[in-house]
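Hmm, how's this folded?
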Amino acid sequence: MAEKIKLLIVEDDTPVALMIVFLLTRAGCETEVATTGKKAIQMAEAGDFDLITLDVDLPDGNGFMLCSRLKEHPRLCATPVVFVSARCLIEDQQRGLDVGAADYITKPFETFEFAPRLLSHIKAKTNSHFIAVSENTTA
Protein backbone atom coordinates (compact mmCIF):
# COMPACT_ATOMS: atom_id res chain seq x y z
CA MET A 1 0.00 0.00 0.00
CA ALA A 2 1.37 3.43 -0.95
CA GLU A 3 2.09 5.99 1.72
CA LYS A 4 -0.44 8.76 2.15
CA ILE A 5 0.45 12.20 0.88
CA LYS A 6 1.30 14.36 3.87
CA LEU A 7 0.58 18.10 3.97
CA LEU A 8 1.34 20.83 6.47
CA ILE A 9 -1.44 23.40 6.66
CA VAL A 10 -0.30 26.77 8.03
CA GLU A 11 -3.50 28.61 8.85
CA ASP A 12 -4.54 30.59 11.94
CA ASP A 13 -8.25 30.86 11.06
CA THR A 14 -9.77 27.72 12.61
CA PRO A 15 -12.82 27.40 10.31
CA VAL A 16 -10.61 27.76 7.22
CA ALA A 17 -8.10 25.26 8.61
CA LEU A 18 -10.89 22.78 9.31
CA MET A 19 -12.27 23.18 5.78
CA ILE A 20 -8.81 22.60 4.26
CA VAL A 21 -8.23 19.55 6.45
CA PHE A 22 -11.66 18.17 5.50
CA LEU A 23 -11.06 18.61 1.76
CA LEU A 24 -7.59 17.07 1.86
CA THR A 25 -8.58 14.20 4.14
CA ARG A 26 -11.46 13.43 1.79
CA ALA A 27 -8.88 13.33 -1.03
CA GLY A 28 -6.93 10.69 0.91
CA CYS A 29 -4.22 12.93 2.36
CA GLU A 30 -2.79 13.13 5.86
CA THR A 31 -2.67 16.64 7.30
CA GLU A 32 -1.16 18.51 10.21
CA VAL A 33 -1.99 22.12 11.12
CA ALA A 34 0.23 24.90 12.41
CA THR A 35 -1.40 28.16 13.50
CA THR A 36 1.77 30.27 13.72
CA GLY A 37 4.91 30.74 11.66
CA LYS A 38 7.10 29.59 14.54
CA LYS A 39 5.15 26.35 14.91
CA ALA A 40 5.17 25.86 11.12
CA ILE A 41 8.97 26.01 10.99
CA GLN A 42 9.26 23.55 13.89
CA MET A 43 6.82 21.13 12.29
CA ALA A 44 8.33 21.45 8.80
CA GLU A 45 11.83 20.78 10.12
CA ALA A 46 10.65 17.78 12.18
CA GLY A 47 8.29 16.28 9.60
CA ASP A 48 8.45 14.95 6.10
CA PHE A 49 5.75 16.86 4.21
CA ASP A 50 4.95 16.53 0.52
CA LEU A 51 3.51 20.06 0.37
CA ILE A 52 2.95 23.05 2.64
CA THR A 53 0.01 25.44 2.38
CA LEU A 54 0.72 28.83 3.82
CA ASP A 55 -1.42 31.81 4.77
CA VAL A 56 0.12 35.26 4.28
CA ASP A 57 -1.19 36.87 7.46
CA LEU A 58 -0.13 34.93 10.54
CA PRO A 59 -0.31 36.09 14.17
CA ASP A 60 3.46 36.04 14.58
CA GLY A 61 4.62 37.18 11.18
CA ASN A 62 4.42 37.30 7.47
CA GLY A 63 3.89 34.27 5.26
CA PHE A 64 6.13 35.72 2.55
CA MET A 65 9.08 35.78 4.94
CA LEU A 66 8.22 32.28 6.16
CA CYS A 67 8.14 30.98 2.58
CA SER A 68 11.57 32.52 1.92
CA ARG A 69 12.90 30.84 5.04
CA LEU A 70 11.49 27.47 3.97
CA LYS A 71 13.03 27.85 0.51
CA GLU A 72 16.45 28.61 2.04
CA HIS A 73 16.37 25.49 4.22
CA PRO A 74 18.49 22.71 2.63
CA ARG A 75 16.00 19.92 3.39
CA LEU A 76 12.81 21.89 2.77
CA CYS A 77 13.71 23.90 -0.32
CA ALA A 78 12.24 21.33 -2.73
CA THR A 79 8.94 21.03 -0.84
CA PRO A 80 6.22 22.83 -2.81
CA VAL A 81 4.62 25.74 -0.96
CA VAL A 82 1.19 26.98 -1.98
CA PHE A 83 -0.18 30.20 -0.54
CA VAL A 84 -3.85 30.12 0.48
CA SER A 85 -4.71 33.69 1.36
CA ALA A 86 -7.49 36.26 1.50
CA ARG A 87 -5.02 38.74 0.03
CA CYS A 88 -6.17 38.82 -3.55
CA LEU A 89 -4.19 41.71 -5.04
CA ILE A 90 -2.08 40.72 -8.02
CA GLU A 91 0.93 42.26 -6.24
CA ASP A 92 0.51 39.83 -3.35
CA GLN A 93 0.14 36.90 -5.71
CA GLN A 94 3.27 37.95 -7.62
CA ARG A 95 5.21 38.39 -4.37
CA GLY A 96 4.19 34.90 -3.29
CA LEU A 97 5.51 33.42 -6.51
CA ASP A 98 8.65 35.58 -6.31
CA VAL A 99 9.55 34.18 -2.87
CA GLY A 100 9.32 30.63 -4.19
CA ALA A 101 5.72 29.47 -3.93
CA ALA A 102 4.50 26.97 -6.50
CA ASP A 103 1.03 28.53 -6.54
CA TYR A 104 -1.17 31.16 -4.90
CA ILE A 105 -4.82 30.37 -4.20
CA THR A 106 -7.10 33.17 -3.05
CA LYS A 107 -9.83 32.78 -0.43
CA PRO A 108 -12.59 32.03 -0.84
CA PHE A 109 -11.55 29.16 -3.08
CA GLU A 110 -13.54 26.66 -5.10
CA THR A 111 -13.74 23.54 -2.95
CA PHE A 112 -14.06 21.13 -5.89
CA GLU A 113 -10.74 22.23 -7.39
CA PHE A 114 -8.76 22.83 -4.19
CA ALA A 115 -7.36 19.35 -3.48
CA PRO A 116 -6.68 18.48 -7.14
CA ARG A 117 -4.83 21.76 -7.58
CA LEU A 118 -2.61 21.07 -4.59
CA LEU A 119 -2.04 17.46 -5.56
CA SER A 120 -0.96 18.53 -9.05
CA HIS A 121 2.06 20.27 -7.50
CA ILE A 122 3.07 17.08 -5.69
CA LYS A 123 2.66 15.10 -8.90
CA ALA A 124 4.78 17.64 -10.81
CA LYS A 125 7.50 17.42 -8.15
CA THR A 126 7.44 13.61 -8.26
CA ASN A 127 7.57 13.55 -12.07
CA SER A 128 10.47 16.03 -12.21
CA HIS A 129 12.37 13.91 -9.66
CA PHE A 130 11.71 10.78 -11.73
CA ILE A 131 12.95 12.51 -14.91
CA ALA A 132 16.11 13.75 -13.15
CA VAL A 133 16.87 10.26 -11.83
CA SER A 134 16.15 8.69 -15.22
CA GLU A 135 18.48 11.11 -16.99
CA ASN A 136 21.31 10.14 -14.65
CA THR A 137 21.07 6.43 -15.39
CA THR A 138 22.52 4.57 -18.34
CA ALA A 139 21.01 1.62 -20.13
Notes: Helices lie at 14-26, 37-46, 63-72, 90-98, 111-135. The first helix runs from residue 14 to 26.
